[in-house]
Amino acid sequence: MGFVLFAWMNIMSETAFPISDRNRLKRAHERGSYDHATVFAILDSQMLCHVAYVIDGQPYCTPTLFWREGQTLYWHGSSASRMLRHLRVGTPTCLTVAQLDGLVLARSGFNHSANYRSAMCFGTARLVEDMALKEHALLAVVDRFYPNRSAALRAMTAQEIKATSVIAMPIEQASAKVRAKNVGDDEVDGQHPVWAGVLPVSTIVGAEQPSPALLAGLERPTNLDAYAPGRRLDEVLIEMQAAYEDAH
Amino acid sequence: MGFVLFAWMNIMSETAFPISDRNRLKRAHERGSYDHATVFAILDSQMLCHVAYVIDGQPYCTPTLFWREGQTLYWHGSSASRMLRHLRVGTPTCLTVAQLDGLVLARSGFNHSANYRSAMCFGTARLVEDMALKEHALLAVVDRFYPNRSAALRAMTAQEIKATSVIAMPIEQASAKVRAKNVGDDEVDGQHPVWAGVLPVSTIVGAEQPSPALLAGLERPTNLDAYAPGRRLDEVLIEMQAAYEDAH
Questions:
Q1: What are the tens digits of pLDDT across the range B4-52?
Q2: What gap in Å lies between CA A166 and CA A74, rounded to an integer?
Q3: Is residue B2 within 8 angstroms of chain A, CB to CB?
Q4: For labelling, which of A19, A157, B32, B86 has a CA lying 20 to 30 Å from the CA of B19?
Q5: What ipTM does the predicted assembly reach?
Q6: Residues of chain A numbered 149-178 and touching chain B (CB < 8 Å)
Q7: A15, A36 contact by CB (below 8 A)
Q8: Which domains does chain A have, with CATH numbers?
């Protein structure tokens, strides 16, 4: 009866991920959240994730580009990749994104820290084998970052589609963890005479580097305007995700 | 006999990690390296890594701060953390760092890519239980990033040392993978009329945010000068590692 009630409550929660021992935050609970909105905002602010999976008891942590559609995360790779044979049947996976936002210098070693935003997502990763879904995904990975760009590209070939694996992982559970504040030791150690504070860091878009072989007369298209030099990449990527969701 | 020769060759190589199926690059070999120098330079350019480990068949991918001393990687965490019971006996671990350096826009979806620097390190992670080593590590995690800062801090307490776990992982094997160039499709698709090139990104230090409760008269110390606003964090961190190695 308790289990039935628990399952029912999980199904009824449409705005947060269910919590179990797998994704429950073990420490610094005040930094944590299980809300869809918080998890998605962190996922959408990045294009690079780290995927953990296990082959014969050995864990691997592979960095890769990823994207999100609804509650499913996607990434792709070569059809020759290491994890492929495990992905046909589905393999337990943890996909994490984390962004460093600042270095936190306290008056004690113990209270040194970092500002960051991270999201850990759990699920079963599987190959996308349906051809229509796979083609959709290979357009989405372009258009999610660069609005409508796929329509302007040289079309995909059957060989390219075959050579690319697309992996999908519906998010079963997730947690977000954020630290976004100044040092926390003012009250306990504030009288200790050492400088304390935050050195913020952010990832910034630089000046474009056009292909040296660019056809004469081709200007950078206006659908890349959001990637203006000096802008924060995380903010651009959140805008691009919103634009993609509006358009699809 | 073949095995003996192979083992001997690995031992004789003092500048590269041994290669096996675990760390051999499966694709894009031209981007890969097993040299200590290449792997260490990528590790030293970052303070955030992702650690993959397995508990009861479930992979976890945890972002955390880390540092390097020689061929050993260290990170720390709460003594209440999830992986602690596994760390007493030692657990197979993969520690990865990856940095996004640019968005690569090609004339086809297939050739879209990213510029990046990544290093995957394999080993067995274990708790540092020796007290002298643990205290050294807790000073190193400060001084590796902020030269000589630990001497100016409020001293560690026995309770703080007890509440902190330090984890060490000697690197058994590693691989580095780097893409650092413009689009690669000039010859095959250069005549297709769409803009192509790289949008570079970099992580930059911002203006300091002193603690609001900073004691009057405390200036930012000169040993933080390398973290000047506008500088690239990766370059600062490489300098700080070199300074730490010179001083210790």
A1: 444 444 444 689 999 998 898 876 777 889 999 999 999 999 999 999 9
A2: 7
A3: no
A4: B86
A5: 0.92
A6: 149-150, 152-157, 160, 163-164
A7: yes
A8: 16-203+222-247 (2.30.110.10)
